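Hello,

Our lab assistant flagged a job as stuck in the queue for most of the afternoon. It eventually completed. Since we weren't sure the result was trustworthy after the delay, we are filing this so someone can double-check. Below is the sequence as submitted and the structure that was eventually returned. Let us know if re-running is recommended.
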Amino acid sequence: MHELNPDAQRATFGQELNPESYAVCKADMMIKGQEVKNIKHGNTLSDDQLFADKFDYMLSNPPFGVEWKKVQKAVADEHEQQGFNGRFGAGLPRVSDGSLLFLLHLISKMRPVHEGGSRIGIILNGSPLFTGGAGSGESEIRRYILETDLSAKQETNERAIHNLEVDLKEANETKSGLDIFKKGLISFVRMYEFLSKIVNYEDKALLTF
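-- returned structure --
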């Protein structure tokens, strides 16, 4: 990282539900001399412990096809009571797959364009990108992501700039994609170009899930 930009500084934040993964993450950061208080333990969807924060770069690999029934009430309440003032105003996907909820969560933490904007990298399988008919929760979320690009509120623009499909070496050969969203002007980039942009900015905050 510092070979590309000696002045680059990184502040890492994150939240993890699994207690073992949470502990391993904090232990690894302590060994490397990094700040561990920014790593939170809890359910991202029902208990956002970084609710007041915005980030420059965000990475997420949410579970594929995992239902969110256990947190359905909390998520539905936020959707109904807060609307777009909360994270899930665009809509709610089917309970059997919460991947798009994680995407909406990340979008809510993007900086406005006049502050430099943000970029998101999220791993999704094909299902949340194509399932759900017109008017469904999935469809409304995709509509929000695309149509916001056309609105006059540039500070809320999210642009899908790259979809890199990869075949996971698993028994079911699940096809996945790395989808990158940004605020600001569209630019199609390869992954190495995206990573080089990250390390060439100073004082940027990185959020991972």
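-- support follow-up --
The delay was a queue issue, not a problem with the job. The result is valid. The CA atoms of residues 15 and 44 lie 7 Å apart. Helices lie at 19-31, 72-82, 99-107, 127-130, 137-147, 191-199.
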